[in-house]
Design brief:
Structural class: alpha+beta
Largest sheet: 9 strands, antiparallel
Shape: globular
Number of domains: 2
CATH topology of the largest domain: Jelly Rolls
Radius of gyration: 24 Å
CATH class of the largest domain: Mainly Beta
Distance between the termini: 19 Å
Number of helices: 2
Strand content: 25-35%
CATH architecture of the largest domain: Sandwich
């Protein structure tokens, strides 16, 4: 029976090591996550995210907005046909037409290195312009999603977000780089980091950076609504299905192993 116990323990240990990556689904232009505190940037920055458009959820534009009229504008916007970034005080808005296809996860990034601002899609630079100076900071509480609650001219984001990170350094350079394929780690240059792995129904989003600048869903102004924490809509195997499969494998393994143990026992007894 010791063989059965060891096999069961091994399978259960492997099951416990599996982590399930989630996402947040912005389904309405009013879906909003408002953060607790303003951010501070200086002479370098990276705003990046892993996003997904589907036939049902695609549109809007403002993924991230931190705005005070004539004072501050940290702004990352995208649509299925374009991408834009604004970092007030270092240069004009940089925008470009580009195709962000449906039903595929994409990495998007805006990078300021003190001399230029660049936009990237899946590690390929799609636009760049000269820029200089220090990024303006203000007192606005940052918003993910419902950008109209920062400024009436903004439009919220519709789509899925796997993770979002803001950094106080230029993480990427040149014409291309290898885009992250997994959730990026927290480090000393991380200003914000959201993995969106919260359980469905959660009303807060945890900032995994050392700043712990957590967000609250569905607040910011009258009419704000809450996005939805969910699993990857492109995943082919759900957590319950995989868990059930593991239990079946465990049961089968126990039966097979049990038979071996029984046969060995009878063999020792001369049967």
């Amino acid at each position: 029976m010791r063989e059965i116990a060891r096999l069961a323990a091994a399978i259960l240990y492997l099951a416990a090591q599996i982590s399930w990556a989630g996402a947040v689904s912005f389904q309405r232009l009013t879906d909003t996550i408002r953060l607790n505190s303003p951010t501070t940037l200086a002479t370098a920055a990276t705003l990046e995210a892993r996003i997904l458009y589907t036939p049902t959820y695609h549109g809007g534009q403002d993924l991230y907005r931190e705005w005070v009229d004539s004072v501050e504008d940290k702004h990352l916007a995208l649509t299925p046909t374009g991408l834009a970034v604004e970092l007030h005080n270092v240069g004009p808005t940089l925008s470009t037409p580009t195709t962000i296809s449906l039903n595929t996860w994409h990495h998007i990034a805006a990078v300021y290195d003190g001399a230029s601002v660049s936009l990237y899609v899946d590690g390929v630079r799609v636009a760049t312009e000269s820029a200089s100076g220090s990024i303006a900071n203000g007192s606005a509480l940052p918003i993910l999603g419902g950008g109209q609650y920062e400024t009436p001219t903004a439009v919220g984001f519709i789509g899925y977000v796997d993770w979002f990170r803001m950094s106080n350094t230029a993480r990427y350079s040149g014409a291309s780089f290898t885009a992250p394929s997994s959730q990026p780690p927290n480090d000393s240059n991380t200003v914000l980091l959201f993995y969106f792995d919260e359980a469905s129904g959660s009303t807060t989003a945890a900032d995994q950076s050392s700043n712990h600048n957590n967000g609250t869903l569905g607040v910011g102004a009258s009419g704000a609504t809450a996005p939805v924490f969910t699993s990857d809509p492109l995943a082919t195997t759900s957590v319950p299905t995989l868990a059930g499969s593991m239990l079946i494998c465990l049961a089968s393994a126990l039966v097979i192993t049990g038979g071996v143990v029984v046969r060995r026992r009878f063999a020792r007894q001369g049967v």
